[in-house]
Write a structure and sequence with these properties.
12 strands; alpha/beta
Length: 335
């Protein structure tokens, strides 16, 4: 096993609404990412992917609130750090975040170089303008962005250029962990390809040490990440290598999710598409038993009565279901 860049143990966070209601968006999530590795997180809208991404940075502001758990980045536990300490010491340096709708994240009134100056001086206030420009120029050119972009405003850039500029700014301090939340959404195929290539270059050149990649596009995860986790109703319900999760998912939800997409890969491209009926549970009042029970076609009475713990099998594989692997394989074989 390589050096662990990010370790998360039993992390739970919630939202507090204006009516003072608790929404338990992330529940007892644990994960590890080694140096040089990437982890994909999949799941339908509302499952908690983006909330988990925000929670992992250890920087909480209303309506998101920390409940419990540990977030350890390169051996440093940031869970007990004060918000100002996290902002000054951790964000950007140790862990960086590419938000959803990144194309709209750039301040339209400032040039790109000014945005970079703000990021760098927040951590290194004495850095000169020349040093900042030289670093930015070198980094942008390394990632296939012309130096002229530094002197432009956001409105002068195309959608794909904006996306790549946000990635370049987010990683300018070479973070140990990069969280990319749907970085290729709303882009055409050509721009998507350029963004993915850019992220891979960052990993290969060691400018980021590890990456979490969140997306609805499961075929993209298969081609970009080493491992895939599937989230449902705030919980991780299965984890395995990208190949295992696409071709041999075990949990009924994971299997349905993987079967609901068209993937042009040998062995599954001719498979019939799966439909997952129903909707996720209300996380203001999470179910006592399995959170997928109301939508699962293999549900048993006991699924609704007892909390389902994680089960580990083979090497570093996990799933959360009352059925054993043998029972699941028998159920699937009889369909």
């Amino acid at each position: 096993m390589g050096k662990i860049m990010l370790e998360v143990n039993n992390l739970s966070t919630k939202y507090i609404t204006r009516q003072r209601e608790d929404v338990y968006a992330v529940n007892n999530v644990s994960l590890k990412i080694e140096e040089g590795k990437s982890l994909g997180i999949a799941g339908e809208s509302g499952c908690g992917k983006s909330t988990l991404a925000l929670s992992l940075m250890g920087y909480y502001f209303s309506p998101l609130h920390y409940i419990d758990g540990d977030i350890i980045i390169d051996g440093k536990n940031i869970s007990s750090m004060k918000p100002d300490e996290v902002r000054k010491q951790i964000l950007g340096n140790e862990i960086a975040y590419i938000p959803q709708a990144a194309m709209n994240a750039l301040n339209p009134t400032q040039k790109v170089i000014s945005l970079i100056e703000d990021v760098i001086r927040a951590h290194k206030p004495k850095t000169s303008k020349k040093d900042i420009y030289d670093l930015a120029k070198e980094r942008f050119e390394l990632l296939g962005l012309p130096a002229e972009v530094l002197q432009k405003h956001a409105v002068e850039l195309s959608g794909g250029m904006k996306q790549r500029t946000v990635i370049a700014i987010s990683t300018i301090l070479s973070p140990k962990v990069l969280i990319a939340d749907e970085p290729s959404s709303a882009l055409d195929v050509t721009s998507q390809k350029m963004v993915i290539k850019m992220l891979r270059n960052l990993m290969e050149k060691g400018l980021i040490k590890s990456m979490i990649f969140i997306t609805h596009e499961l075929p993209l995860l298969y081609n970009v990440t080493n491992d895939i986790m599937v989230m449902y109703a705030g919980q991780i319900i299965e984890k395995g290598t990208a190949k295992e999760m696409v071709f041999d998912a075990m949990h009924p939800y994971s299997k349905g999710l993987m079967g609901s997409i068209i993937v042009p890969e040998a062995g599954i491209k001719n498979s019939k598409l799966t439909v997952i009926s129903g909707t996720p549970p209300n996380l203001k009042h999470p179910p006592e038993g399995c959170r997928f029970a109301e939508r699962c076609k293999y549900v048993k009475p006991e699924c609704r009565l007892q909390e389902v713990s994680e089960r580990e099998f083979s090497h570093d594989r996990m799933y959360r279901c009352i059925y054993s692997i043998k029972e699941l394989k028998e159920v699937y074989a009889n369909e």
